[in-house]
Amino acid sequence: MQVKQQKSIKEIDEVIKKYHETGGLIRILQKTQEIYGYLSEETQIYIAKKLNMPMSEVNGVVTFYSLFSTKPKGKYTIGVCLGTACYVKGANEIMKKLKQTLEIDEGETSADKMFTLIATRCIGACGLAPVITIGDDVHGRLNVEDVPKILEKYQNSPEKNYNTPNNHIK
Amino acid sequence: MGKEIIRIEIDDIQIDTEQGTTILEAAFKAGIEIPSLCYLKEINEIGACRVCVVEIEGVKALQASCVYPITHSIRVFTNTERVRKARKRVVELLLSEHNRECTTCIRNLNCELQNVADNLGIRDIRVTGERKSYDLQTENPFIARDYNKCISCRRCQAICSTIQEVNIYAPLNRGMDTLIAPAFMRDLGDTNCITCGQCVIACPTASIAAKEDIQDVWAALEDEDKYVVVQTAPSIQVTLGEMFGMETGTIVTGKLAAALRHMGFKKVFPTDLSADLTIMEEAHELIERLKGNGKLPLLSSCCPAWVKFAEHFYPQLLEHLSSCKSPHEMFGALIKTYYAKKEGIDPKKIVSVAVMPCTAKKYEASRPEMGCEGYRDIDYVVTTRELGRMIRQAGIHFRNLQDELYDMPFGVSSGAGAIFGATGGVIEAAVRSAYAILNQRNSEMGLIDFEELRGQRGVKEAKVNLGDKTIKVAIAHGTGNARIILDRILQGDHYDYVEIMGCPGGCVGGGGQPILGRRDYKRISLDYRHNRADSLYKIDMHSQLRQSHNNPDVKRLYAEFLGKPLGEKSKKLLHTTYTPRGSYF
Question: What are the φ and ψ backbone dihedral angles of B387, each rounded to 5 degrees?
């Protein structure tokens, strides 16, 4: 763990070095979140110090953008589109089923640290409504019954960490 | 070259104004008050609250007058049905989510939101906003935070960032959840806040308010077993009157002493006396350092907000800081030792109260090193505002009080002690005495007014002749200005003696001073501070005694108890140490 920590601090230092000149705080935070999965207080303080920026300013940016998470996230982030099209096609039922199956509420992470569940606004895939995103994948035209099957697929997959929130639109 | 003058019309009044002036300022000069909440002249001009909207002929939407610069001739209307309606709606929306417990609020009758609501005649709030319920943050000795009363005007953020350059506050979260708060919404006591209290003064509501020690002081006064002694900082005598509707800068020294005696304090002393004492110690420290014993420049240490600022942001300069405690702490140390012994009072029974213009002194009094022989130097610090409230609670007609004098044996103070309350005052006082000490004679120096050291310029520099030596001095007030001088020192610029005050204007602009938020004399910038300072210089000018080293009470103190400046007893009781604290938390 210690070794991993040191390794990732080195990575963050590189990220800071790369984007510091151009004043890229958001970039640095984004890349750091990719490394750690979230932005803890310690991480934010570390970045503020390195950039010689007020702590309040860094924390202000982190809390402003929904892209950033200050809590650890699961391996996969499930985004349930609650845009109008998805909503009328029953997205609410899908959300309910996910909550039930994972035994968590919106914004929370499942006990096995596999999934974090969030509601999103329209993701622009209305033709596939109702839509959910899991990591980079988009699952459309869903029925409530599909939910357990889909989750199972991820639970059994040894895939890489998809935890880069909101990067499903490429 | 002057700016172009433009003739505009506001509410059918012709006004000639400089190009670039905002409509709000131009209207103010013409005697038209446009209501505002987020506006602080030259500090927070961001058009956030939308209360100051006006109609401009030919412009479709209403415009925020605080951020609308005049570039050409325009016709403005500040009092139309449309404008009144819009302002009303804006304030209604603010009120719909505001904690409206006005009657029990610390800013009741002195609240800008309350004033604006009343001026606009809001009698009915037609919408119900979502009421947030945040816990009060009171985990520190100086400032309490109530997010339920925040209107997100950002004035705290602006003053902390632009004037003080401490940057505690930022907008956190977004939309309806936005809060102007320290990072991670921490209690101010858990941040690198310097406790100056400028945010308290800037806040239009009671979202940020100094903590009160009033109840504890009343309890001590009631306790027959206690001997309650009080001291008043030099600036209190020129600001307390404002709490009772008197003009800014009214001198109320005699009434102040009288009121405190009426309230039941056994002895009433002027902190001005220990300011004289501070000068004796600090002037000798300066002389020692000029001889090569210790680091130059000597940085003054009588402002606890500045001291904490140095501990956080300039730890490499802590060795330059004078080791003198601030005057009220020095006084506190003497009261429980010298005075207790002299008067035959058990120091355990003494409760030492200090009336200070300052929230940082509440913090300072809580510092573990501020005590000696097992006693706290100061038990309670109350601000000018708190004292005003206590006088009201006691039912004292302050304006009608007969003047009284301070108590012996510390009742005499010099004009040099009085000007401690204004920026530049400490150096001026110290120079008067240092000259005399160095040249071993009383000089004309004390009678000279050092005009170049006075005034409200943020950074002042001067060369001062001390007989054989000419020293370079610098003065800064407001920690943003302090950074300018401190950075010059770090770059290698030479100074001998530097005075820094945490608050703009020095103590007269302190975070514990009356807040001029009342409708009849609301002030929306820092420009009332010179009135208060002028009064201190007036006190000095009319003072028989204008040099600290000539104060007979101070002389007696050294003869009977302390020995000599920087002597063993002085070092133990009157001096302190500092701790580097790191610029992040």
Answer: -60, -45
- Cross-chain Cβ contact B168/A57 below 8 Å: no
Residues B295-309 pLDDT 10s: 999 999 999 999 999
**Poorest-confidence range of B74-78, B168-172, B396-400, B409-413?**
B409-413
Q: Name the amino acid, one letter, at B298.
A: L
Q: Which two tokens stand for residue B422?
A: 């204004």
> Residue B183: which of A49, A59, A64 has the nearest Cβ?
A59
C-alpha–C-alpha distance, residues B37 and B117, integer Å:
11
Q: What is the pLDDT of residue A74?
A: 86
A55·B584 Cβ contact <8 A: yes
3 state SS for chain A: CHHHHHHHHHHHHHHHHHHHCCCCHHHHHHHHHHHHCCCCHHHHHHHHHHHCCCHHHHHHHHHHCCCCCCCCCCCEEEEEECCHHHHHCCHHHHHHHHHHHHCCCCCCECCCCCEEEEEECCCCCHHHCCCEEECCEEECCCCCCHHHHHHHHHHCCCCCCCCCCCCCCC
Q: CA-to-CA distance for B111 and B104, rounded, in angstroms?
A: 12
Cα separation of the two ends of chain A: 32
Tens of pLDDT, residues A131-150: 999 988 999 999 999 999 99
Q: Set out the domains of chain B in order of their start, with CATH numbers.
A: 1-130 (3.10.20.740), 132-211 (3.30.70.20), 215-574 (3.40.50.1780)
Locate A1 and state its tokens: 């763990």
Q: Which residue has the higher pLDDT, B372 or B254?
A: B254
Please tell me what DSSP assigns to residue B569: H
Task: Give the residue from B209, B251, B113, B174 showing the smallest Cα distance to B531.
Answer: B251
CB pairs under 8 A between A and B: 43
Percent of residues, chain A, with pLDDT higher than 90: 59
Q: Which residues of A touch B171 (CB under 8 A)?
A: 60, 64
Q: Does A17 touch chain B (CB under 8 A)?
A: no
Decide if pLDDT at A23 tops 80.
no
What gap in Å lies between CA B577 and CA B119, rounded to an integer? 51
How many other β-carbons are positioned within 10 Å of the β-carbon of residue B277? 29
Where residue A165 falls among pLDDT bands split at 50, 70, 90?
very low
What integer is the mean pLDDT of B512-541?
83
Spell B130-142 as b/e; 16+ CB within 10 A means b.
Answer: eeeeeeebeebbb
pLDDT in tens, B390-417: 999 999 999 999 999 999 999 999 999 9
Q: Would an 8 Å CB–CB cutoff place A141 in contact with chain B?
A: no
Q: pLDDT category, A5, cuts 50, 70, 90?
A: low
Output the pLDDT for position A6: 66
Per the CB < 8 Å rule, is B169 touching A56?
Answer: yes
Using the CB atoms, write b or e for A67-93: b if 16+ within 10 Å. Answer: ebbeeebbbbbbbbbbbebbeebbbee
How would residue B1 be classed by pLDDT, with cut points 50, 70 and 90? low
Distances in whole angstroms, Cα of residue A83 to Cα of each of A93, A116, A170, B236, B248: 14, 19, 19, 61, 58
SS3 state of residue B468: coil
| Of B405, B128, B364, residue with least CA distance to B258 | B405
- Whole-angstrom Cα distance, residue B577 to residue A135? 55
What is the rounded CA–CA span in Å between residue B348 and residue B227? 9
Q: Mean pLDDT across the stretch B506-521?
A: 86
CB contact under 8 A, B170 and A41: no
The structure tokens listed for B22 are 């905002």
Computed over every residue of chain B, the mean pLDDT equals 93
Q: How far apart are CA B386 and CA B363, in angstroms?
A: 16
- CA–CA dist A46, A52 (Å, integer): 10
Q: How far apart are CA B246 and CA B532, in angstroms?
A: 12
